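explain this.
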Amino acid sequence: MGRLLFLISSLQILWFEPRAVQLPSTRFHEPVAVSETARSQAPFPAARRSRLLARVDRGVIVIPAASTADFEAQWLRGIEFRQDDYFFYLAGLDSPDAWLVMAKNPPFESVMLFLPPRDPAEERWTGPKLGPGPEASVLSGIAEVHPTTALDSILGVLLRRTGGPVYTTLPPPAAARRFPAVLRETASGLRDITPVLDSLRLIKDADEIERLRKAIAITAEAQKAAMRAVRPGMWEYQLEAIVEFTFRYMGATRVGFPSIVGSGSNTTILHYDKNLRQMQDGDLVLVDIGAEYGQYTADVTRTFPVNGTFSPRQRALYLLVLGAQQAALDAVRPGVTMAELDRIARRYLREHSGDLCAPANCAEFFIHGLGHWLGMNVHDVGDYRTPLAPGMVLTVEPGVYLPDEGLGIRIEDDVLVTDTGYELLSAGAPRTPEEIEALMKENPRYLCCPEER
């Protein structure tokens, strides 16, 4: 409750120019408006569906959407509806309780979307929803859209026409609970389609990359807002509030994962997210954050001095970690593996540590992997043995953590693999000590501590 009260009070002292917001004037049960942007995005899920069907000889693919969130039961826990990633990847829709069905028995192929019928009485409480109709076809690029009430009968026809098998993303226990009656008897013999989908999701198309760019740009702005605002005496949760306000103000859907704002000894805890410590003069603060935009999340970490200036030791360790990161970044290109990049970063630490971590070598205090895939999930799907290829997006995040000193440093950037190397998608967040210190001298847009005015 303390964090909530602080956030409410802090919003009254933020210096931002107001912006005009145009609200839709939609009457209940009118057709849902379809923007030109939404129309232009429909071909991307269609191409993904075609690639998936090309990987299946014959059968029926059944992909369920996420279930409707129970507002009455879950609102106190902050749980909101978020679409199933596989359904969003293939349908591009945020509609709950929907089903995507694809069938193949060459030369026969069919793609169908099933949506719950609209309920005008319910929409008085929850707002307009997308139902079966032409708007759904435009948004999804799927010509055949049916109400979910027809799912059972149509699936029976498709199963007879293809002869099976049934592919799905649901494990058998969940399939037995959620599948329509006609499929329940097949739940024990289902085929898992997720490995195929995961391999497809590794290579991002233009729409996915654009969503990631926006999520990462928002996250970079939040890192800069935190750098400008931080000062000794602030609490970690106050800095978290500034980060997450910036996310939402700039259009992020939600956080991609719980924000990590750790200062002092908390910089050495890899997934610290309590954010309860008061920051002191001389501390470093590690801010590992990611905004989600359009179902895709960023993941950017910066470590910076609470008082605005690195101490000589902090700077030396920071430059060591930065050098290890740059050595790995310089090696990013098609054909390289994540394991090779990891070895390059560790070798740099071993060869350049000097006596910074004596009597040990600083490489011994790099206690996690160098990075991970990035996409709809912060640790996205995909086989890490897969060589890099154009269109893949990954993080590169070396770190050194010295618990006896209460000193940890991690630098994490989001990287797009290109035909000839890489693009640093998170370049908008300062990386070097000089860039960070210069930004921290700027006037903050946030008055974090009204008692100081």
